[in-house]
């Protein structure tokens, strides 16, 4: 068969010589050992925790080695494309401080672009034409119905499904038959003519999993669809070569495709990049573990963390504990160090499923937020509220000076022991809502309604906002003693049966009346921040409530 003639018929016209592409996309001028990594999502509008997991690894590998990280958009499947998806990807990754050097919507050195695969069609077709001319690719005229019947036949025969060997009906069509189909206008795709043998095993070094064995590819996969757009398999091989990618970190679900990719690199004459297949993120579900699911687990979506207002550093710290087995020990010794100081290692990435624990992330988030100054916390809350907050939440962050006083108290800034009450921006802003609005009562009074009102009435008669903390507490003790409560805790502990309760019980009534809850920071300071008018209004309102 005249393969060159066939290549011209299938892909007519002039294409750049392949060596010209090698000149246009030269090896990168980087230091020895520098890694070029990438993130290459599809523009589906859904970016998830697995994307971030891989992005953090790729970013650390590239920048730690003095290399480059780029963003490529794999948009060959228009059916899955969602408007605004690329910008959503970029915003989500920016939130978590993933720093790309170049790529789609990034800027930087554009030598290796364009970064959208649909803009690189001529390049792919040039390589496909060369494969056809060499007899390593061919047209396939099988319809969807024929392919469906083929799969049913293979399933009935208990064979591996796919287009290979004796099942590859168009692989050995005669020249006459091919041209007759073309002249009749039959639609076709271009398939790789695989030379693999499934009886042969390949030893392959995975950068994460170590030495693994894979079966040689014998599938005649589609490399160019009927619309002239390549499949992912083919496009990624061409792009990773021309963009000079050195290391591909990707999910272990791609291990099944590895034989195809290895054959594609070989048949194209490209040196293979190194591959590392990272473990799946798992979730404990009862007695079993399963992969995080888009349908079942809202925490899989990165929007979940942005909408809740997780501190980006907290999420990265937790991701790094999952990515590298020695990170947690390092971080305990260097809790305030830049995360970039940690020596990231591909070899220390987990080889099997990693358990994602939202409770542990929340613990880390509390620790990380507690490290912030009141000013840093304010900036974080304000920024989050502008993008994600409700009208009420935005109102709570509007007065900077007032909120700084609240945060200084609620975070314990200035004291040796910092409070760790906050997990996320949303929870923090709602947690301090009682400083801004008359609170709902969340805890019940542990005294009768009559005693509650007696305590509140007696306190109002003595309350003066000008009192310092010592004078204020002395008055609380007087109220306690006047109503049969122990003014001193040691007295109450010595003879609890002799009293209606202790001064702590009296303070709890005041606390619930003013804040709605029994567990808050220093009550005197809360009253100082609220001001006399607000304190009196709340206590009066609590007295009117008969609960």
Set down the secondary structure blueprint.
Elements: H1 3-10, H2 18-24, E1 36-39, H3 49-64, E2 68-71, H4 85-95, E3 102-103, H5 121-133, E4 137-140, H6 144-156, H7 175-183, E5 189-192, E6 201-206, E7 210-215, E8 222-224, H8 232-242, E9 247-251, H9 258-268, E10 274-278, E11 281-285, E12 288-291, H10 302-308, H11 312-323, H12 327-333, E13 354-355, H13 358-370, H14 374-388, H15 391-396, H16 400-411, H17 425-431, H18 449-462, H19 469-482, H20 489-494, H21 503-515, H22 523-530, H23 532-544
Parallel strand pairs: 1-2, 2-3, 9-10, 11-13
Antiparallel strand pairs: 4-5, 5-8, 6-7, 11-12
Write a concise synopsis of the structure shown.
This protein has 547 residues and is mainly alpha-helical. The chain has 23 helices and 13 strands.
């Amino acid at each position: 068969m005249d393969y060159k003639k066939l290549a011209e018929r299938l892909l007519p016209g002039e294409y750049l010589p392949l060596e010209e592409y090698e000149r246009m996309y030269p090896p990168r001028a980087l230091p020895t050992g520098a890694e070029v990594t990438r993130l290459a999502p599809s523009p589906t509008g859904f970016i998830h925790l697995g994307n971030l997991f891989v992005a953090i690894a790729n970013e650390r590998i590239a920048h730690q080695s003095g290399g480059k990280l780029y963003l490529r958009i794999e948009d060959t499947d228009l059916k899955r494309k969602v408007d605004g998806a690329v910008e959503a990807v970029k915003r989500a990754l920016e939130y978590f401080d993933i720093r790309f050097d170049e790529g789609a919507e990034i800027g930087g050195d554009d030598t290796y672009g364009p970064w959208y695969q649909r803009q690189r069609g001529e390049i792919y077709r040039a390589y496909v034409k060369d494969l056809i001319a060499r007899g390593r690719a061919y047209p396939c005229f099988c319809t969807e119905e024929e392919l469906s019947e083929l799969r049913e036949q293979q399933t009935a025969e208990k064979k591996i499904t796919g287009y290979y060997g004796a099942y590859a009906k168009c692989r050995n069509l005669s020249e006459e038959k091919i041209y007759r189909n073309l002249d009749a206008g039959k639609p076709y795709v271009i398939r790789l003519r695989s030379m693999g043998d499934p009886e042969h095993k390949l030893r392959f070094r995975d950068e994460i999993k170590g030495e693994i064995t894979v079966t040689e590819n014998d599938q005649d996969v589609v490399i160019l669809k009927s619309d002239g757009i390549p499949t992912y398999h083919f496009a990624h091989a061409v792009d990773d070569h021309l963009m000079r990618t050195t290391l591909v970190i990707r999910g272990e679900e791609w291990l099944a495709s590895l034989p195809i990719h290895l054959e594609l690199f070989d048949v194209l004459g490209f040196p293979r990049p190194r591959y590392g297949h990272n473990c799946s993120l798992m979730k404990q579900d009862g007695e079993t573990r399963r992969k995080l699911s888009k349908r079942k687990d809202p925490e899989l979506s990165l929007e979940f963390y942005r909408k809740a207002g997780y501190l980006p550093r907290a999420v990265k710290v937790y991701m790094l504990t999952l990515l590298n087995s020695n990170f947690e020990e390092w971080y305990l010794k260097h809790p305030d160090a830049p995360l970039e100081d940690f020596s990231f290692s591909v070899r220390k990435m987990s080889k099997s499923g990693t358990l994602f624990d939202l409770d542990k992330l929340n613990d880390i988030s509390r620790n990380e937020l507690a490290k912030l100054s009141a000013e840093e916390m304010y900036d974080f809350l304000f920024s989050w509220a502008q993008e994600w907050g409700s009208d009420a939440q935005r109102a709570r962050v509007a007065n900077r000076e007032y909120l700084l006083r609240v945060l200084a108290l609620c975070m314990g800034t200035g004291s040796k022991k910092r409070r760790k009450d906050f997990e996320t921006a949303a929870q923090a802003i709602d947690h301090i809502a009682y400083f801004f609005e008359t609170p709902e009562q969340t805890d019940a009074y542990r005294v009768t309604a009559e005693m509650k009102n007696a305590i509140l009435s007696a306190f109002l008669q003595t309350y003066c906002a000008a009192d310092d903390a010592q004078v204020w507490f002395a008055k609380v003790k007087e109220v306690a003693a006047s109503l049969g409560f122990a003014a001193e805790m040691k007295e109450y502990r010595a003879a609890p049966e002799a009293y209606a309760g202790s001064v702590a019980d009296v303070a709890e009534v005041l606390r619930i009346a003013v804040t709605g809850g029994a567990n808050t920071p220093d009550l005197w300071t809360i009253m100082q921040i609220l001001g006399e008018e607000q304190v009196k209004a709340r206590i009066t309102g609590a007295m009117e409530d008969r609960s």
